[in-house]
Write a structure and sequence with these properties.
Length: 182
């Protein structure tokens, strides 16, 4: 009697699709945001980002859509600050998120991102800003880092990308000081 119950159960499990977690390194995912306004954002292969390459838990570092979320944040914030008539093209070439997965914390804790001041958020960008005639206003590589990210953190904030988003916002305030209300 047990065998007759077990066989249909195993057959059902074999044909039930397993939904894999979304990985930022999936080669089929887009590597750019849809064109929307004066700011375009694209990124290189996330598998080459420091966040993934140097992680102590590669599986956790690859999970989710954090690259797209950071790109959307950058696009929205830059569009609000960019002077009228200018356009901005950004290529994200590297990201290292705040915190890290520390080895040796046990099987139940290896998926927890530990926040310490030795793990600041970092980003490397290629930026090109042009005016209405297509003339380059500003161009070059930008290396962002927020070494004081823990001092500015909000204890009740639930956004896992709060440190990276604040670093992007701080950079945009310096890069584009003339605000259009953003």
């Amino acid at each position: 009697m047990r065998k007759t119950f077990l066989i249909p159960l195993l057959a059902a499990l074999a044909i039930t699709p397993v939904h894999a977690a979304r990985l930022v390194t999936d080669p089929d995912l887009p590597r750019a945001l849809p064109a929307d306004g004066p700011v375009s954002v694209e990124w290189t292969d996330p598998a080459e980002f420091s966040e993934v390459r140097l992680s102590h838990n590669r599986w956790e570092s690859e999970r989710g859509d954090w690259v797209t979320e950071l790109a959307r944040h950058l696009q929205k914030r830059a569009a609000a600050r960019l002077p009228a008539g200018q356009s901005m093209h950004v290529v994200i070439t590297d990201i290292e998120r705040a915190g890290d997965f520390e080895p040796g914390r046990g099987l139940t804790s290896d998926h927890i991102r530990v926040m310490r001041d030795i793990y600041p958020p970092r980003m490397t960008l290629q930026v090109r800003i042009t005016d209405t005639t297509g003339q380059v206003v500003s161009e070059g590589e930008r290396r962002l880092v927020d070494n004081s990210f823990l001092m500015n953190s909000r204890p009740m904030e639930t956004d896992p990308l709060q440190h990276e988003k604040r670093m992007i916002a701080d950079w945009l305030r310096r890069e584009l000081p003339a605000s259009r209300g953003g």
